[in-house]
Every structure is written in C-alpha cells, then in structure tokens.
Amino acid sequence: MISACPKRAVLAALRPEPDFSGLASLPAPESKAGARFLRWLDRSGLALLFFRQLQKHDVSLRVAPGLQFALHRRHERNFERTADMLGEAQRLCRAFRERGLAVAALKGFTLTPDFCDHPFLRHQVDFDFLVAPDDILAAAEVLRAIGYFASRVNQTSETSFLTPLQHIPTSNDDLYTRQTQRQVDLHVSLWDPCPWLPLEAPQNCLQSAVCRSTCGVDYSGLALQDAFLFQVLHAFRHSLRSWVRLSWLFEIGRCLQNHHGDETLWALVIRRAGPTRLMKSACAFVLGLVHRLFQIPIPGPLEDWSEEAMTDSLCAWLDHFAVDWSIADWPGSLKNLFLTREFIPNGHLRRNYWRSRLLPGKTQTSLGTPPVAGAREFVEWQAARARYVTERGIVHLKDMLALPWHGLRWKRALRSSRRLAFRAAC
Hints:
Layout: H1 4-13, H2 32-44, H3 47-56, H4 65-99, E1 103-106, E2 127-131, H5 136-145, E3 159-162, E4 183-187, E5 210-214, E6 217-221, H6 224-239, H7 246-258, H8 263-273, H9 277-294, H10 300-306, H11 312-320, H12 322-326, H13 340-343, H14 347-358, H15 375-425
Parallel strand pairs: 2-4
Antiparallel strand pairs: 1-2, 3-4, 5-6
Helix pairs in contact: 4-5, 6-7, 6-8, 6-9, 7-9, 9-11, 11-15
C-alpha cells in the first residue's frame, strides 16, 4: 500500500483548475514506493492522462527525471499498442458489417472526443459491442470465423470471446505492450441482469446509433445520451464490487465539462435514464464520485433530476469515504458496503450481496478460462491463477479486519451529516 498523498496530488493535478502543489510528494520510481505508485497510476488508468496534464501546463520539470522518463515511455508504448488495437477494431467492424449485422461499438476508442481527447491517451483493454439479442448467435459466428473463442454464448447477458492464449499473465506484465491475447465482449443491453439490482435500462439503443469514424476506423456507435448513460452504468456496476478504474470517472467528468451547458443533451439523458429511484441513485453515486474526485461541476438538469437520491447517507459517504475508497490500491476496498441500503432496500437481497462481497466466489477470484494449447500451458495458467488469488486474498483479509473501525467512522459521519441537515432545515 502506498501513501494517499501522491494519489491525491494526481487527482488535484487533473482538476479543471489544476493544483500542482503536491507534485513534490511524488516518489521517485527507483524506490519501492515509486514502483508501487507507478503501478497504481497504471491500474487506475491515470498515468497517460497525468503525463498529458504535466505537458499541457509545462510543469514536467517539477517531477523527478525518472518519473518523467517512465511516463514518457508509457506514452510511447501505448501509442503503438493503440495503433495495433485500432487496426483490429477496423477488422472487427468490417466483419460485422459484411455480415449485415447492426452492431454498435462501445467504450474504448469510441469515447473520443466527448470523453477523451484522443484514443492514444487511454489504455484500452478489450473491445465491446452492443448487439440485438436476436443477432447474438450470428455475431458469435462472425467472431469465431475470425479467430475468437467462447465456451458458450449468453443470450441475456455479456459474453466474452478470446483469441488463443500466447502468454500467461502475471502481475508484473507491462500493460502498454501490444496485446498477446485479444478479447471481445458482446452485450445485449446497457445493463446486464444483476441478482441484487433490477435496474431498468433503455433497450432500443441500436435504433438511435450513429455512423462515426475515429482514427480511420468506421463504425456504428451509440448516440451521445446513450453513451453517457452506458459509461455511468459501467462505472456503477464495477463499483458494486470493490474497485472502479479512476480513468472511467475522469472520462465521465470530461464529458460533463465538454457539454456542461448543453441542456438538450442532459434532457435526453434524463429521458433515457427514466424516473426510477434506483437509476437516480446509481447516477447520483457516480456523479458524486466524479465531483468529489476531480472537482467537476454537475450540470443543473442532472443535479435536479438526481436530487431525490442524494440522501443524508449518500452525502455522508461521498463526503467522508469517496476519495479514500476510490484511490485504494487494487483490488479495492470494502468501504462502499456501508451504502448497500441505498441501492438494495430488500433485506434478503442485501444479505446475499454482503455475503458475496465478504466471501467472494470463484468468479470474483479468477483470471478467466481462456483456451490453452497443452498441459504445460495449463499448469502455468493454474500457477498464475494461484498467485492472483493469493494477492487478492491478502488484501481482502486486511480490508475485512479493518471494517469494524470503518464502521465506527461511518456512524460518526452519519450523525454529523444528519446534524448538518437538521440545522439547514431549521
């Protein structure tokens, strides 16, 4: 675990009005603390964005030369990686198009320019596509024909397709090298079924999809209102576990900045999101994180629409826990368990959810099951999985032991929030 000071310094530097006063707290990459800090930057997705911010404001010389070089090399390697992935994206889109399938590309390079200034400034991991439920089997056939594999196809939820395994992953892998294994995720909805949260997301997004082109890749993408809602729901779904990638929240904030005064857009987002309390709570939580982490103002229409969900409990958690929870080292923190009642009012479902968080099953502690070529690769894969489970297990156990202390903090935060609300009402 690394000190929170360098992490908070990065967040401050990425604000609309950047504060670079904390740059002196950043550890040199040659030290153990510096190596851990760089790993956090990589896993959070903020390394490239932070490097760009230092360059944009001409403050690179205020960080250690070793850190400058490390960030510069990441930018160079990611440029090659992204160019390679854009070529694969073009091949995928062409294959779907030739089959005559209505498929919309999601996330990744499609976030330019509304959420991210350039695809080369983000670390893309896989490819995501939205397909109509009736076309999922045809889309699966397309992927199999060009070298992707899935053990089975899920017609009601996300299905992941992989190319053959060429490298056993480890925690020390360079995230910015060209991919040795590719992954395509097929979605049939903006929100996959969840046993605890029956969230109602719009189902007709393909009808309003638009033709776009990014860095030479021609594709069909979501209308901006649907893309924004999908990014919020994507971040929220990951937050239901212990961790969310900070760059996703930064990108949502970037879209808020770019379109802050576009009341027509936010009216469309609100219409697509619908009036349910659960949707408002999910959006209020994610937007609250964005605001507290990066000091990005929430557009008035969104703030008014989600005001009902901004309860004393949610405000207390955002004020006292949001930053610490968000900047926790991977695989994250259990502190967001205190908010469970906000999203899961049913006591039985809430207990099941708590059980899944405190006693995670195989699906939460697995590297997945990609195809392997032989016995040697299978043994290496199992060893890698054992290391992965051990690493996660140690962090999880420490987090569980700290829960009682954080529970006391949570009670104090709630009392403080309710006193302030009472005084404001008076």
